[in-house]
Design goal:
The structure holds 2 protein chains of 2 kinds. By secondary structure, chain A is mainly alpha-helical. Classes of the chains: A mainly alpha, B mainly alpha.
């Protein structure tokens, strides 16, 4: 028995390690592809000994490198946030975009842009965190208040309703204050505007959120067996849930404030990793982080390729990948209840 | 047994008359309000062709077609919602949530995208073509949802979840297409998708009118079949209904109504969901009463939303779909909490 577990542990570690090692290659690929293709030697040169006079070095240092890193971080944040949500609620459809979180964050951002246009980037990030929080609380409240409890379909419908409501109010504000362009960007999701400032925000918040997520991963596994079993095993469920919600808020808020609404990434990645890694969240959480990072880097490259030289919003790409998956889940898990 | 039915018919007539009075009243209110104020007396004078040229222009070319479109679209979407909720036995079904509206929207955007250069999109030909295109898109969405949700029968919950998924997928495809458009078309398409009675002119009214005038009476005619279907398939076939055939015909009617309405009014969500509930609350579950009352409530609600959207934040015009969402989502959330 023990040898099998050890063996599978080695296997799981290998899978995570392989994905980890492929991340730098994906980043280099993402940097080299663009309006002007840049070869690997130049990329290496720009990173090792940066020459401010060379245009290609400038492009790499100021545009493409921060963008690729931001894509990796945003992907990791959204995927882990989805994994924690699904574990906590034992609901296979829970994820940032289904739960209206992204709409909440966008709503807060529009409010700030309309009424406090001089707000700093840090302030905007803080606002999107609060907005994401309000949406999560609202969706959970509506779902739990329902007579039949928090079923997948109730959660999905509550998410649609709250999300649409928040988006409608945001459109209203943006129409009145002529912020449609900014709004359109947040709703479509994109990484075009990322710079080192955004990477810094993502690094700090992502580190806190990921740390919290890793810290409670074991308890989430217990919690995913059900509240009663977890309690009888001596676990403080309330504490775990509070920490879980905090980490979800920080991770989603950070991701949305940088990249806008990137749909379905937080839904599909945890399912893929659960399929490979089994049910233990101590494996699911780190694996989701690396898979999410890889998926978003590749989606971002696809988004730039598909209609070159124009960019397609990366959120549209992740949605197109995610929808068939969602349909599969709806058929297999939603119909039985 | 006779007595209650008699009373019911009297209440039904009373409510119909009440709603018609409200609609006529609001009709004059919304004719009189706007950036250019026209007093109610002048409105009447202009309607009897005694107004100034300017007043005639504002009323006949701008306001009147918009209001009539609101009435047509509102009743179309509401009846489409009644039928969908009836045949799926799902109280939370609605052409917006199920992705039928988005399917129609996608077809329209593709139409604008490919034919923009070739045709003038406000020319009569393309105005009459648009409901057909929207219908194709709506049908494609409906068939896709039906097929994907089919697993030895249709489970209402699976249907809603699949609909939400289809909706998200079509929305993503829409974004990709929209961004390929030039900026002016892009803005037009965005506002339209939020639900907007765009370029409200008489051509749109005449393009939509036959659909509404044929399909709503047809749905009313089929009210008894809907009642039977609502009792369950076995009871319905016991009552002599050809279940699968009737369901298909009614589904087609609902999709056609939604598609035609979307072609003229854009993505107005939640109206088709909320209105049937209000109607059932007033008159009970019998479809021969629910369908006409829903049509009138839908028309009234959309007229009100149209006037509110045009005036509350003037000079900014709020797309009508946003007003409808903000008005009806709180009620939807209440329904979500109440229903099993």
């Amino acid at each position: 028995m023990i040898s099998i577990i050890n063996h599978s542990k080695i296997l799981k570690t290998t899978i995570i390690a392989v994905v980890c090692f492929s991340l730098p290659f994906a980043i280099i690929f993402s940097i080299s592809y663009g309006a002007v293709d840049i070869d690997f030697a130049t990329i290496w040169g720009a990173i090792i000994h940066f020459n401010p006079d060379a245009t290609s070095h400038q492009v790499i240092q100021e545009l493409r490198l921060p963008r690729a890193i931001a894509a990796a971080l945003v992907g990791a944040c959204l995927a882990v946030s989805g994994a924690i949500m699904q574990g906590m609620t034992r609901n296979p459809l829970a994820s940032p975009s289904i739960m209206g979180v992204t709409d909440g964050a966008a709503f807060a951002l529009v409010l700030m842009l309309a009424f406090f246009p001089a707000m700093s980037n840090t302030g905007l990030t803080a606002a999107s965190l609060i907005g994401a929080g309000i949406a999560v609380v609202l969706v959970f409240m509506v779902g739990s208040m329902s007579t039949s409890g928090l079923t997948p379909v109730k959660l999905a419908l509550a998410g649609v309703a709250i999300g649409t409501l928040l988006r409608s109010v945001s459109s209203l504000i943006s129409l009145h204050f002529q912020l449609e362009k900014e709004m359109g960007f947040w709703l479509a999701g994109g990484l075009a505007g990322t710079n080192w400032q955004s990477v810094k925000i993502l690094l700090i918040l992502g580190a806190i959120g990921l740390f919290l997520a890793f810290a409670i991963a074991g308890s989430i596994t217990t919690l995913s067996l059900g509240d009663d079993i977890a309690t009888s095993l001596g676990q403080n469920n309330l504490l775990v849930k509070i920490i879980g919600i905090f980490s979800v808020l920080i991770l989603t808020g950070a991701a949305v404030s940088i990249a806008g609404a990137i749909g379905f990434l937080g839904l599909i990645v945890p399912h893929i990793t659960r399929f490979i890694m089994g049910t233990d969240y101590r494996w699911i959480v780190p694996a989701s982080a690396v898979f999410g990072a890889l998926l978003l880097i590749l989606s971002d490259v696809t988004a730039r390729m598909i209609n070159a030289p124009f960019e397609t919003p990366v959120g549209a790409i992740t949605s197109l990948i995610g929808v068939p998956f969602f349909l599969y889940l709806a058929r297999s898990s939603g119909g039985g209840k | 047994m006779r007595m209650p039915k008699f009373i019911k018919q009297r209440t039904f007539l009373f409510i119909i008359i009440l709603l018609v009075v409200f609609i006529i009243g609001w009709f004059f209110i919304s004719l009189a309000t706007g950036t250019i104020q026209i007093s109610p007396r002048d409105v009447l004078k202009t309607l009897f062709l005694n107004g100034t040229d300017r007043q005639e222009l504002v009323l006949f070319d701008f306001r009147l077609p918009g209001i009539i479109l609101a009435i047509l679209i509102g009743s179309g979407l509401a009846v489409s919602g009644v039928i969908l909720q009836g045949i799926t036995k799902n109280e939370l079904a609605d052409p917006g949530i199920l992705g039928i509206n988005t399917g129609a929207g996608l077809a329209i955007v593709i139409f604008l995208f490919f034919f923009r250069g070739i045709l003038d999109t406000t020319s009569p030909f393309s105005v009459y073509m648009m409901p057909l295109f929207a219908l194709t898109g709506a049908l494609a969405a409906a068939i896709l949802i039906y097929v994907l949700a089919w697993n030895k029968g249709i489970n209402p919950i699976r249907l809603v979840l699949v609909g939400i998924g289809i909706n998200a997928g079509f929305s993503a495809a829409l974004v990709i297409f929209q961004l390929k458009m030039d900026p002016q078309d892009y803005r037009q398409a965005t506002v339209w998708l939020m639900g907007d009675i765009w370029s409200a002119n008489w051509a749109f009214v005449f393009a939509l009118l036959p659909w509404i005038l044929i399909l709503i009476p047809f749905a009313w005619h089929k009210a008894r079949t809907l009642n039977a279907l609502n009792l369950g398939d076995s009871v319905a076939s016991g009552l002599g209904s050809k279940v699968e055939k009737d369901r298909l015909i009614l589904l087609f009617t609902a999709v056609a109504l939604a598609g035609a309405s979307v072609a003229a009014g854009g993505g107005i969500a939640f109206l088709g969901l909320v209105v049937p509930h209000i109607a059932r609350k007033i008159i009970g579950p019998m479809h021969q009463y629910v369908i006409p009352i829903s049509a009138l409530i839908g028309a009234l609600l959309l007229m009100v939303a149209d006037t509110v959207g045009k005036n509350i934040m003037a000079p900014t015009e709020i797309p009508i779909g946003i007003v409808v969402s903000i008005l009806s989502i709180p009620y939807f959330i209440y329904l979500l909490i109440k229903t099993k």
